[in-house]
Amino acid sequence: MSESILLNVPDILYQRLANTAQATQRPLEEVILHALRIGSPPDWLNVPEAFQADLAALDRLDDDTLWTIARSQKTEDDMHRYDELLDFKQARELTPEEIVELQTLRLESDRFMLRKAHAAALLHWRGHRVPATAT
Q1: Taken in order 32, 33, 34, 39, is the CA torsion positive or negative?
Q2: pTM given for the model
């Protein structure tokens, strides 16, 4: 037995649930009932504004694409240059170009890790077992 209710949902929440339904190819009603049982999808509104659009876009992705993001790794070259610039910063003053490069690499690294973590959280919310090594 079930009951029907009329419920006004904020646009942002509705859109996130609709995106999830589309991405997982499940009926919207099923996604909403899932959210009622376990809570809403992981929130991205509490991260810095510079990253919110990237994380919001993950709501629309299918599970296979989210798994790819959750399992992705930075290249050794990316990490080497970042570490090298950090070492330079401790040993001497960085050039203006190096400062910009370090800031860019830090921003890219933060974006990369937030996307990985959010993809894993979305997969978990969608009912997948996500091992800690996936992130």
Answers
A1: positive
A2: 0.75
Q: What is the pLDDT of residues 30-69, one digit of tens each?
A: 999 888 888 777 777 788 899 999 999 999 999 999 999 9
- Between the alpha carbon of residue 71 and those of residues 14, 21, 67, the distances in Å are 28, 23, 6
How crowded is residue 37: how many other Cβ atoms within 10 Å of its Cβ? 7
For the stretch 98-107, contacts whose Cβ atoms lie closer than 8 Å and that sit 24 or more positions apart, written own/partner, are 105/78, 105/81, 106/82, 107/50
List Cβ neighbours of 52 (8 Å cut-off, separation of 6 or more). Answer: 44, 45
Strands (E), 7-99: none
**pLDDT value at position 77?**
85
At 5-20, the pLDDT tens digits run: 888 989 988 998 999 9
**Shortest CA distance to 17 belongs to which of 37, 43, 35?**
35
Helix (H, G, I), strand (E, B) or coil at 65: helix
